[in-house]
Design goal:
The protein is mainly β.
Length: 114
């Protein structure tokens, strides 16, 4: 069973930056596309960005130009560099496989506020 441990969240002012990490267990990490998701209270969990096993990345419009997803297959780790953060980015951020049903980790809280 794959396990995900997200870290790197915190409180940041608008315009600030954070770098999230996702440590994943299991031998399938290097096979499947990895995605970063977020969920705010009262809202659906939404995909933020994803990256294929070969490094091809996709971003939702609301983070394009601000966020960068990356992965290190040797370390079983995915990252999300978040710049120019906005209050509407406030959410719990999770990682998971978009194409492979897996359980969710605890996520990491990102709060953007003055």
């Amino acid at each position: 069973q794959v396990q995900f441990v997200e870290s790197g969240g915190g409180l940041v002012q608008p315009g600030g930056s954070l770098r999230l990490s996702c440590a994943a267990s299991g031998s399938i990490f290097n096979i499947y596309t990895m995605g970063w998701y977020r969920q705010a209270p009262g809202k659906q969990r939404e995909l933020v960005a994803d990256i294929s096993r070969t490094g091809s990345a996709n971003y939702k419009d609301f983070v394009k130009g601000r966020f960068t997803i990356s992965r290190d297959n040797a370390k079983n780790t995915a990252y999300l560099q978040m710049n120019s953060l906005k209050p509407e980015d406030t959410a719990v951020y999770y990682c998971n496989y978009p194409d492979y049903a897996s359980s969710w980790g605890q996520g990491t809280q990102v709060t953007v506020s003055s």
